[in-house]
Known about the structure:
Elements: E1 2-6, H1 8-19, E2 26-30, H2 33-41, E3 47-50, E4 59-74, H3 85-93, E5 98-99, H4 107-115, E6 125-126, H5 130-138, E7 144-147, E8 158-161, E9 167-176, H6 183-193
Amino acid sequence: MFRIGxxxxxxxxxxxxxxxxxxxxxxxxxxxxxxxxELLKEDQVELIITxxxxxxxxxxxxxxxxxxxxxxxxxxxxxxxxxxxxxxxEWLSAQRWISYGLELPIIRRLWREHFKRxxxxxxxxxxxxxxxxxxxxxxxxxxxxxxxxxxxxSKAGIRTCFDNLTVTNxxxxxxxxxxxHLPELxxxxxxxxx
Length: 194
């Protein structure tokens, strides 16, 4: 039985389709990057899939994939044809935002990368589940930033906007160095990479 820690969204969209017919038995634990690291440090899981690399003695990371984040809006929202960054920032700032967390994770990064400062927005809703964020956007509750891999199975109630305003993030596989050469660990890594 292989124990793995990862986000619920990654599990549903990318992990589950790969392991369903693999013959592998697994126990999955969901949580934030901090929570997953603790599970790994305490030997409650053998492997984590995480967006953060923590410098911890005895833990190694490998790049799994690069995820791209984009802005999504309700399909019914009228998006103006803006091209100047200042105008785009003003329009985005005036929208109702749905965030994954109070600190505006990813939204803050997108803002810094494209507008060279912190966003001056307060989220209308904070929802720590990206599938629920997408559903809220579909229902017209606001706009948000999500990884593009979640768009592949989403409904027609959303669309992307300002497609040049994206940010990328590395997803990493983390494990204890002492387990690096275990056949079970190498097998699950090869299944995840398919």
